[in-house]
Amino acid sequence: MFDIQEELKKLPKKSGVYLMKDENGGIIYVGKAINLASRVRQYFQDSSSKSAKVQSMVGRIKEFEYIVTGNEVEALILECNLIKRHNPRYNVMLKDDKTYPYVKLTVAEEFPRVMMVRQKEKDQAKYFGPFTNTSSVRESLDMIRGIWPLRSCQLKLPKDMNKSRPCLYHHIGQCKAPCAGLVSQEEYRAIVDEVALFLGGKHTDIMAGLEREMLECSENLEFERASELRDKLKALAMLSEKQKVASAGDGDSDVIALARADDDALAQVFFIRGGRMVGQEHYMLANARGSTRQEAMTEFVKQFYGEAAFIPKELILEEEILDKEAITQWLSSKREKSVSILVPQRGEKQKLVDMAAENARLTLSQFGEHMRREKMKTQGALKEIREALKLSSGLERIEAYDISNVQGFESVGSMVVFEGGKPKPSDYRKFKIKTVKGPDDYASMEEVLSRRFSRRKQELEDEVDPEKAKFMKLPDILMIDGGKGQVSSAKKVLQALELDVPVCGMVKDDKHRTRGLYFEGQEISMPLTSEGFKLVTRIQDEVHRFAIEYHRKLRQAAQTRSALDDIKGIGPSRRTELLKHFKTIEAIAKASVDELCAISGMSRSAAMSVYSFFRQ
Prior knowledge:
The protein has helices at residues 4-9, 36-43, 52-60, 72-86, 134-147, 168-171, 185-199, 203-219, 223-241, 293-307, 324-335, 347-389, 441-461, 484-496, 531-565, 572-582, 585-590, 593-597, 604-613, and strands spanning 16-21, 27-33, 63-68, 93-95, 102-105, 114-117, 126-128, 244-245, 253-261, 264-273, 276-286, 314-317, 340-342, 397-406, 409-419, 422-423, 429-432, 477-481, 503-508, 514-519, 522-524. The protein is of the alpha+beta class. It starts with a helix and ends with a helix.
């Protein structure tokens, strides 16, 4: 039994991170402290100055953990990582599920490429962004390739060098053809360096250098080269002018302001690179009720720049932040150059902050009603389900399961995940039933859940990194497609693995439509127009769709194999060409030998094998 008062006495007077847990062991808050003993004790002292949010959280705390760090900056980094990993209920959270594009320059390759990507990976490439307008990024990349002829192919150079002729891009002047050895690595690297400078916002430096080179070529009577440089300068000027000028000096900075409404906050960010505003975006912060503007701004800065590919030289904020010195030191370490954080009181930078603040208010006003509707579809729906089932804890993570088969053929199981009332496809899993013969949905459900939760147990024992684990997260509730029998199968598995997770069935009517929930031995009805009922319907439809889709894929693969894989002389390539040309097995079966011979790579003997196979 965890005795909070006794454990408080053991807290060290050192910097570190603390994790508050509820009665189910779930982490509901993550914080950092310069002095753990002093900070954590404050939560459990009687004080009328505590906000309603803190009082609510303290009422749910049943135990806590702490991790000692070497200094405050280490605690800050660990806090950011743990908040991202555990998504605690009482932390102000950056609520941004959009994937903004980055521009990636593969500088680790001998002949680098430039491309748009959605994810920033831990490789040796240079990333620029994130950017907020995908079409603008694509347009800019097209112009960049027109100015700097870098390759865009997937060839592994120099391994694949001289294995093919230069492609069309070389002939239209958009690639130097390193694949054919038509450019030296030194010359190609010089082009790459210019692209990196441009993407880093150093437009003026590049254009000044190109102008000097153009004049030198002109003086040396190298008119063709001078003409090329003139055209490049014009293109660069056009690309630069597409970006809006901002009066914030000639450096790189981000301008951030906040707007508040009920439980949410909105952060508006202006991205300024080389003195030019290259984009703007707004980001939602959840769980902001009861937090001060200073706390909300602090959490946004920590979470946003914990993930950003680029950290500017300067953050221009509307509000002062907590732990400013530690955050400045942390950001400078990430950037590997000095970072300054300031709250301007006058001048051009103050005007930029005012403009960002006005945009934040307008955006929140514009999207406020939409946000409220979305909240009712998610958080409001979860609350209705929780109340209908009389559950004391939240339903942040819901896992739903279904079994699909046709008369026992290729039985499969599906697992879909909803977090915060929204689907999370990255956590979806599918299972091909291995041990059950025939159409036994109950036994199939037992197999699926046994495999799912046994994998979790194994990952815990192996101490797998939570970022790489596939089954470590424990759901707040299981929703099974079916009634009493399916629920009993699920409970049997959970009891065997000593897991305490609520289980309910999603019951359908005679027309195969969602009717209600089966929980603790009785059917629970919900108003058909309620958001809770609509969410249950979406979950049931989604898990059924995912199961059917997987089952159909396996069935089609099996049908294709039965028809083509056993034909002598027909390997994977010829199978692919046959299906690509004839579309269906029936069409292949009806084809003549001459028609089969018309397929690319099909010899007459192979065609005869196919023809004979379908006429045995």
